[in-house]
Predict the structure.
Amino acid sequence: MTPERWRRVEAVFNEVVDLPDHERAAHLVSACGSDDALRGEIEALLASVPDAARSMRTAIGEVAASLPRVPRLQIGARLGKRYQIIELLGEGGMGAVYRAHDDKLGEAVALKVVRGPVDEQLLRDEVRLAQRVTHPNVCRTFDLEEVDGLHLVKMEYVPGETLATRLARDRALPIAECVRIARGVAAGLAAAHARHIVHGDLKPANIMLDGDRVLLMDFGVAWVARVAAAPVGRLRGTVGYLAPELVRDRQADERADLYALGCVLYEMLAGEPVFPAASTTDVHTRHVAIAAPSVRKMRPDTPRWLASALGDLLAKRPEDRAHGLQRVVAGPPRRMSTAVLAALVAVGAIVHNWWPSTTPTPPAEHVNGHAGSGDNVDTLMFSPDGEWLLFRSNRLGAGQPRLYHVVGR
């Protein structure tokens, strides 16, 4: 199905999904006209979605109504002998978060009051995993307590606002800001992934912005992936940021977080999600089966290198995402003076002599600003006149320097 065809299907589907059955049929005839194939595609989608979950709005309302309520704590109230509630910071499916004053520490902390009934083992796992990740780009988790019959997760209080709040106010962000935030999140994820911890719920609401600080928070659904694709059992995370392998196979590793980072970066650049849609099933289907649209269609001033890196992060195959992360962190291809370039080539030649290769040096070829087909490039450097391209290649030996003459650019 082409992107244009899918957009047509999506538009009509969203028009009829919430209509009563007796109105839906008439609307389909009017909207589809003589396009019987279009009508068949939409009817198949409708048939695959349970009535109780046809609309994301309906589903969210039903779930919210069924959840046990978190007791609303009054501002100024005390919890036990140690905490005084200062303000409500936010409320979600897992509970409510308050800023409180910790009399023992003499400073502000964030207290997550967890919804009941509480699975104490899951709570302990959340806190243990979060405590293992120590990094400037990760919000610290201190302890798990039970005070006055309430289960509390005590965390570092970070002033500022979430990325979700920022996006709700400003929609698309300046490109430099998007890259800066993405790099901060990537640094926090790298610290978690170094311990094989998958965050599992990366989204704008779990990214805190405090001036120049970018902090990843809330490891409430995190898990440890010690194998390539760990089974996760129930579907974790938030609709709209779930990697295809999570939705399809219920198993994933750290690379699922890279896909979620791609979703967040796209949203920062475009001002809307990768796949905006009304129903949960529709969003899941598109993340699994439909290629992500180029962000340059929504944001034409996005640099090509960034749009390409974002495309890698949003790859359906997990093994294709790491290169996108490397490119976001590294930034655009760097241009160097001819003198510095010559020096690097000389050093490369020495290294090449120390590490002989049986494969001959490739001939000059047309590379159009990129390496030749089959090269796995991790560095690109151009001479000022654009005539020469230096990079490291794995095609002819791991990390060997290569110099190509760029012709016909």
Notes: The chain is about 40% helix and 20% strand. Confidence is low (pLDDT under 50) at residues 50-68, 349-380, 382-387, 405-409. The longest strand covers residues 83-92. The CA atoms of residues 92 and 365 lie 56 Å apart.
